[in-house]
């Protein structure tokens, strides 16, 4: 987040640019009697209504942050007095030897279940829905869930205002930088001259129609899980919730784009067709793919080369006065409360005590990991996987 010098004459202690999940959670709690700890420029409400909590993080560095985020989601819901997170089981599946799947199982605390090629295949959970190809396996855990994203951002906005923040929309940003999603590289470069290797990707959120008689079977009420599929095409899904009779099943990733000039209709079939083929093969008889997805929602990822976050001080002439959170690579929303708390402490205190106490190692998320090494943590990630 972007931190200004200590406020005087009724100014602000901290200015947060970008009021999405990371920005709005990063508004520090009031430390003085005067009600002005932060200024937030909210982004437009997210188009995506619900997001899964896992896919399980592939690398062991993420579980401490996931556990911290889970606790903070609960704290925020308790303070707000309502829920934005619906717990569900979670299912990971893919080729038995896939290194990313193996890492997800190991690091996510999942229990491997019987695969389709085993004699007792019909006994594993959700075997009535999924038909795993030969050589595949699946692992389940109780760590899944679906976050109502728009409602979650609104919840944190209301809590920020309650705790003294001043929210300002449509405010011009001239010389400060923070969590602005796909625009992070442009803004940080223009303000601080720092190159962030964050590539915006155009992706597509797809909602498919459940076949008649299968609608309830795919809901959280029936125990249906969030799930992720590894292999040639990375697929993820949430149960049927926000649109009755529809289930969200999407491909992870997308095509590079310019966030200021992207074609909102570009690449639709290229992103939807692999999902349709996956559904037809692995969920036969449960989801109708004829004619494509019923709802298509354009979305953007902010992708780093190693798919790890950027959480760091900008440095240089700004020193520790400006903190940046960016490059959440399609798996950051669920960790919003943890990342926001960390960024707020960095901005206010110059260090993140909560991260240290939770066992979150921030060294992996420094900007400097890309200096002389364009792939950042990727080589290490491959070794670990």
TrEMBL record:
<keyword id="KW-0274">FAD</keyword>
<comment type="similarity">
    <text>Belongs to the MSOX/MTOX family.</text>
</comment>
<feature type="domain" description="FAD dependent oxidoreductase">
    <location>
        <begin position="59"/>
        <end position="346"/>
    </location>
</feature>
<protein>
    <recommendedName>
        <fullName>FAD dependent oxidoreductase domain-containing protein</fullName>
    </recommendedName>
</protein>
<dbReference type="Pfam" id="PF01266">
    <property type="entry name" value="DAO"/>
</dbReference>
<keyword id="KW-0560">Oxidoreductase</keyword>
<dbReference type="InterPro" id="IPR036188">
    <property type="entry name" value="FAD/NAD-bd_sf"/>
</dbReference>
<keyword id="KW-0285">Flavoprotein</keyword>
<dbReference type="InterPro" id="IPR045170">
    <property type="entry name" value="MTOX"/>
</dbReference>
<dbReference type="GO" id="GO:0008115">
    <property type="term" value="F:sarcosine oxidase activity"/>
</dbReference>
<dbReference type="GO" id="GO:0050660">
    <property type="term" value="F:flavin adenine dinucleotide binding"/>
</dbReference>
<dbReference type="InterPro" id="IPR006076">
    <property type="entry name" value="FAD-dep_OxRdtase"/>
</dbReference>
């Amino acid at each position: 987040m972007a931190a200004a010098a200590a406020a005087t004459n009724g100014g602000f202690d901290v200015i947060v640019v970008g009021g999405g999940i990371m920005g709005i959670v990063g508004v520090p709690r009031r430390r003085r009697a005067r009600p002005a700890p932060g200024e937030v420029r909210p982004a437009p409400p997210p188009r995506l209504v619900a997001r899964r909590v896992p896919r399980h993080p592939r690398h062991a560095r993420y579980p401490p942050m996931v556990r911290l985020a889970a606790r903070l989601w609960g704290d925020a819901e308790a303070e707000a007095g309502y829920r934005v997170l619906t717990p569900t089981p979670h299912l990971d599946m893919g080729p038995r030897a896939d290194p990313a799947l193996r890492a997800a199982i190991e690091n996510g605390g999942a229990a491997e279940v019987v695969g389709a090629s085993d004699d007792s295949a019909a006994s594993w959970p959700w075997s009535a829905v999924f038909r795993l190809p030969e050589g595949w396996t699946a692992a389940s855990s109780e760590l899944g869930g679906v976050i109502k994203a728009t409602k979650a951002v609104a919840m944190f906005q209301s809590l920020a205002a309650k705790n003294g923040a001043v929210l300002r929309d449509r405010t011009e940003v001239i010389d400060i930088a923070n969590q602005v999603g796909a625009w992070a590289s442009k803004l940080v470069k223009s303000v601080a001259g720092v190159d962030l290797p964050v590539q915006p990707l155009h992706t597509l959120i797809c909602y498919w129609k459940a076949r008649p008689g299968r609608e309830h079977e795919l809901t959280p009420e029936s125990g249906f899980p969030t799930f992720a599929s590894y292999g040639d095409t990375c697929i993820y899904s949430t149960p049927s919730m926000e649109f009755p009779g529809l289930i969200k099943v999407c491909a992870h990733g997308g095509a590079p784009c310019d966030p200021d000039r992207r074609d909102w209709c570009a690449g639709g079939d290229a992103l939807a067709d692999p999902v349709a083929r996956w559904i037809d093969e692995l969920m036969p008889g449960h989801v109708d793919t004829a004619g494509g997805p019923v709802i298509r929602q354009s979305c953007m990822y902010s992708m780093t080369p190693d798919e790890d976050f950027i959480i760091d001080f900008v440095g240089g002439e700004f020193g520790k006065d400006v903190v940046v959170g960016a490059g959440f690579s399609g798996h950051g929303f669920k960790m919003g409360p943890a990342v926001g708390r960390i960024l707020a402490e960095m901005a206010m205190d110059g260090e993140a005590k909560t991260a240290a106490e939770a066992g979150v190692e921030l060294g992996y998320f420094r900007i400097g990991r890309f200096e002389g090494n364009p792939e950042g943590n990727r080589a290490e990630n491959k070794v670990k996987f």
